[in-house]
Design goal:
Number of strands: 7
Radius of gyration: 17 Å
Number of helices: 7
Structural class: alpha/beta
Oligomer: single chain
Shape: globular
Number of domains: 1
CATH superfamily: Crotonobetainyl-coa:carnitine coa-transferase, domain 1
CATH topology: Rossmann fold
Mean pLDDT: 91
Strand order of the largest sheet: 5-2-1-6-7
Length: 186
Amino acid sequence: MLVVELGTLIAGPFAGRLLGDMGARVVKIEDPGRPDPLRTWGQGERDGRRHFWTVHARNKESITLDLRCPDGAAIFLDLVARADVVVENFRPGTLEKWGLGPDRLHEVNPGLVIGRVSGYGQTGPQATRAGYASVAEGVSGLRHLNGFPDRPPPRMALSIGDTLGGMFAVQGILAALLARTTTGRG
């Protein structure tokens, strides 16, 4: 199974990582000159590599492509033609702005499963807002449950909002792959 991963930080890449852990070949696409910020996160490092990055990048191949330019988009669409899954976690409308929304991807590969991870969904009044785990944890009340009554709620060591988002994305992707076995469509 070939998974193409687009996006940065934790939720979408966590979904890609889980699929890689399950045996998928995962190709992570990064923007030239603007690599995933996770490459520099965390305190522990060895030989100039951050441990946090090595955990989130495991079982992945990384390439750089500028999806905004015709050559980069063409290479991406060639990958999509052979892929089973695309996982992305851009703000809603980003792929469509580049002419690479689901309609275009399904023209190239009708069986493609597309997992879109966003903080507030793909549609609705808050869809265009950036989604961050820390905000979701605060808005949901989860942070209120953590810490001490006389102090502000602390950030948990694990980005629970992102990891849960990634896990639920994988569940949806696996269900869509199963449905594809009977429908032939992603």
